Amino acid sequence: MRIGVGYDSHRLVAGRKLILGGVGIPFSRGLLGHSDGDVLCHAIIDAVIGALGIGDIGRHFPDSDPRWKDASSLEMLKYIVELAHANGYEVTWIDSIVMAEKPKLAPYMESMKETIAKACIAPGSISIKAKTDEGMGFVGREEGMAAYAVCLLRKRS
Ligand code: MG
């Protein structure tokens, strides 16, 4: 088995759609990024890359690569899970945390889990939690959002 830890953060800006876990969430601002800025998918990708021991997210998805410009991060996650399969591993479990002061994410949790599972992992293999930072730091000041993830890979038999 292999374990990986992942982290990501993105700035909140006007004029962008807010996408988390592949799901569009109604909000006044969205996350800035080369792709759709889906901070949760990026943290999970980071964790899978870490478990595989194959560098970091910038190596696999460079900002200079037009293939991933405005890309769906769900597609990026799918790509990296397929890379895990090609290396002989399957994703057994993902746990994650989205740090966001607003909006309330509870209504979208099931949809995010289903969307990620449908894209690339076995149903029921992912946990997503949401937290605020109680007004502290960049998350608390609503300057951005962050996400953490851990992932467990198992060698396929
Ligand atoms: Mg990112």
Average residue pLDDT: 95
In the CATH hierarchy, what is the superfamily?
Answer: 2-C-methyl-D-erythritol 2,4-cyclodiphosphate synthase
Count of DSSP H/I helices: 5
- Secondary-structure-derived class: alpha+beta
Describe the structure.
This protein has 157 residues and is of the alpha+beta class. It has a single domain, classed as 60s Ribosomal Protein L30, Chain: A (2-Layer Sandwich), CATH 3.30.1330.50. The protein is built from five helices and seven strands, in the order E-E-E-E-H-H-H-E-H-E-H-E. The strands form two sheets. Strands 4-1-7-5-6 form a five-stranded mixed sheet. The chain has a two-stranded antiparallel sheet with strand order 2-3. The longest helix is centred in the N-terminal third of the chain and has 14 residues. The chain starts with a strand and ends with a strand. It binds magnesium ion. Magnesium ion (MG) binds next to strand 1. The site of magnesium ion has 4 residues, from strand 1.
